[in-house]
Amino acid sequence: MDPMERLLAERACERLIIDFVHRLDLGEPSSVAELFTEDGVWQWPEDGRLVKGRDALRAYFGCRPADRLSRRMMSNILVTVVSPDAAEAISYFTTYRVDGYDGGVVPAGPPVQVGHYEDTFHRAGVAWLLASRTLHLPFGGATPRANPPLP
User: Fold this and answer.
1) Please, is 118 exposed, middle or buried when counting C-beta atoms within 10 Å of its C-beta (0-12, 13-18, 19+)?
2) Per-residue pLDDT of the chain (151 residues; tens, 9 = 90+)
3) CB atoms within 10 A of CB 125
4) d(CA 53, CA 81)
5) SnoaL-like domain location, by residue (predicted)?
6) Cβ-based neighbours of 5, under 8 Å, separated by 6 or more
7) How far is residue 29's CA from residue 130's CA, in Å, rounded to a whole number?
8) Are the C-beta atoms of 56 and 39 separated by less than 8 Å?
9) Is 25 helix (H, G, I), strand (E, B) or coil?
10) What is the DSSP letter of 28?
11) How deeply is 128 buried, as exposed, middle or buried, from its count of CB atoms within 10 A (0-12, 13-18, 19+)?
12) Which has the closest alpha carbon to 60: 51, 68, 69?
């Protein structure tokens, strides 16, 4: 690959990483399935979760609670193009999240997750898609309620 092709491939993969979290936080969570290949995989080995294929991904991400408010911050995104049609990436994430959100400002608390993703990408025609996304979560906790019920 020439340097410009490599740069464009890296940018397309970086864009997928960011688009994934934007769709989860600000869009329709089930739509992240469209960012994967038809047989794409999302997994969390430490928890035993493995989701394969767009239909399963759509169902998995689409079942998030309707009253969940989340914001993810991505950083340290490093994409490595391994061939004209394949790339890999590692990126760090921090997740702030509450359930029971019904509007307004939620008092800031610590993040509920800090970890990293390992991704593989395949080029499908002119577009790049996620082939696999693996979650590694060394820091995690329960999702708090935004408006805990009174005792």
Assistant:
1) middle
2) 899 999 999 999 999 999 999 999 998 999 999 999 999 999 999 999 999 999 999 999 999 999 999 999 999 999 999 999 999 999 999 999 999 999 999 988 899 999 999 999 999 999 999 999 999 999 999 999 987 655 5
3) 6
4) 23
5) 5-134
6) 84
7) 16
8) no
9) helix
10) -
11) buried
12) 51
Report the Cα 5 to chain-centroid distance in Å: 25
Closest CA to 92 of 61, 120, 121, 118: 118
Taking the C-alpha atoms of 52, 43, 91 and 8 in order, what is their torsion angle to the nearest 10 degrees? -10
Residue (of 3, 9, 2) closest to 128 by Cα position: 9
Neighbours of 38 (CB within 10 A): 10
- Would you say 120 and 86 are in contact if contact means Cβ atoms under 8 Å apart? yes
Q: Side chain identity at 89, as an amino acid letter?
A: A
According to DSSP, the β-strands at 127-140 and 49-52 are: unpaired
Least Cα distance to 17 among 91, 116, 86 occurs for 91
Q: Which two tokens stand for residue 103?
A: 């509007």
- DSSP for residue 34: G
In contact, 91 and 124? CB cutoff 8 Å: no
**Between β-strands 127-140 and 36-44, what pairing exists: parallel, antiparallel or unpaired?**
parallel
